[in-house]
Write a structure and sequence with these properties.
By secondary structure, the chain is an all-alpha fold. About 70% of the residues lie in helices and about 0% in strands.
């Protein structure tokens, strides 16, 4: 980092925007194929009916809601890195802030698809939108599903504005070095940025304002998502711990996804001098903290079930640990609470291979956390004769594959067509006197 200058930062980032190689387009084509597969599965479901999924009575919420919660969670850590750590002046977040905020925007977009998919009759979404009181059909604002619509749309709006505002100086840098059609495009999207003193003054204030606005949304959005469950009387869901539990889990999964995205990005675009091992190590240290919070939440759930002496609650948590979905439960526990403890060892948290591998395991564990929470409680409700089992169908797997392909497809397009590292913020770090100042 100390070898960097303003010129080398510009050169390193701008080189990533040069003409892609065939391998890049091959990856784009593969991901596009995955998206088409997912879209075909969704189309099939629309024509045949929601019954092509594995949802049943009593397990009415399957992978669609699991993936919705998973992607909303992934989005959170991007805001933590880009907004909250910006307010705390943590200089180590500068090299990864742009990509993390991009991850937020794309993850929210991906999550936003699943309520539509889960509806089955997607055109019925009309009833979830605020509209004048015609036919006495106001949306039910007491429903947590209505909370979701407001929370997610607000989060997407603020995150998108924060992301775009932060890019303006870098877009102008690309414009000044571009020619032909690219220059025309970047002239439009850089919104007339010239770098005058007044523009910088307004920019820094606006960026700080959006960071402050996005910060409470990190807490509120996933709290609202947790209320989808906590407001029900279903055993295993009806608990006040869900809001902090979900927020901690969301940040935990998002940090792991940051490592999963940053490590290949660093290698492919030769960002080693910008995204240093120290930066990745700091992310790993934060994962230790969030992993311990998540572990504490798991233990608290079991303790409260035992302490309440509520036989239904006790049975639900016994079922999670030893019942039909015990494999998912133990994957959740091991990957989310034990695996992150390996980052206590400096040799592991400074090894690129270990960081990448363990981040993938945490992502897997967090997906299973959502599976365990959503499926086990409704599968083992109050009435024994109404108990049932759930298994995803091929259609659900196809849609889930399509969602992952969509997320990585959008990210792949972004890193090759827009600056994936904030040149402005890296230069600020140099100006403040050292690598990752603060």
């Amino acid at each position: 980092m100390s070898e960097l200058t303003y010129a080398t930062i510009d050169q390193t980032v701008l080189q990533t925007l040069e003409k892609p190689r065939p391998g890049y387009w091959a990856a784009v084509a593969v991901l596009a194929g995955g998206i088409l597969l997912g879209a075909a599965c969704w189309l099939y479901q629309i024509f045949v009916g929601i019954g092509v999924g594995g949802q049943n009575n009593p397990v009415a919420w399957g992978t669609y809601l699991i993936n919705f919660v998973f992607w909303v969670g992934i989005a959170h850590s991007g805001t933590l890195i880009s907004a909250i750590l910006h307010l705390f002046r943590a200089g180590w977040r500068n090299p990864i802030a742009r990509a993390a905020e991009t991850m937020t925007v794309f993850a929210v977009c991906t999550a936003g698809l699943f309520p539509f998919i889960h509806l089955g009759r997607v055109w019925a979404v009309y009833y979830m939108l605020p509209y004048p009181n015609q036919r006495t059909l106001w949306p039910n604002f007491q429903s947590p599903l209505m909370f979701d619509v407001v929370a997610i749309s607000t989060y997407l709006t603020v995150s998108s504005l924060f992301w775009y505002t932060g890019m303006l100086p870098d877009l102008a840098t690309v414009r000044d070095r571009a020619t032909g059609l690219r220059k025309k495009v970047f002239t439009v999207i850089s919104l007339g940025w010239t770098g005058k003193h007044e523009q910088w003054r307004h920019y820094t204030r606006g960026y700080l304002f959006f960071a402050a606005l996005a910060t409470p949304l990190v807490i509120s959005v996933h709290s609202v998502v947790s209320w989808d469950f906590a407001l029900g009387v279903v055993p295993g869901w009806h608990t006040t711990i869900f809001a902090p539990y979900f927020v901690a889990g969301a940040i935990h999964s998002g940090l792991a996804m940051v490592l999963t995205l940053m490590i290949p990005l660093r290698h492919i675009f030769h960002y080693e001098k910008i995204i240093t091992v120290d930066v990745l190590e700091n992310v790993a240290k934060t994962i230790i903290l969030t992993g311990m919070i998540v572990g504490f939440a798991y233990a608290t759930e079991f303790f409260i079930a035992w302490y309440s002496f509520n036989t239904v609650e006790i049975e639900v948590f016994r079922y999670r640990m030893l019942g039909d979905y015990r494999v998912g439960f133990w994957i959740m526990v091991v990957c989310n609470t034990i695996i992150p403890l390996l980052f206590f060892f400096k040799k592991i948290r400074t090894s690129i291979r270990w960081l990448f591998g363990l981040s993938l395991l945490v992502n897997v564990g967090m997906w299973f956390e959502r599976f365990v929470i959503i499926i086990t409680s409704v599968a083992r409700d109050f009435i024994p004769h109404a108990w049932g089992l759930y298994a995803p169908t091929a259609i659900e797997f196809g849609i889930m594959l399509g969602s992952f392909c969509l997320f990585f497809f959008l990210f792949l397009l972004f890193v090759k067509h827009l600056p994936s590292v904030s040149m402005t913020e890296i230069k600020e770090t140099l100006h403040e006197g050292g690598p990752h100042a603060g």
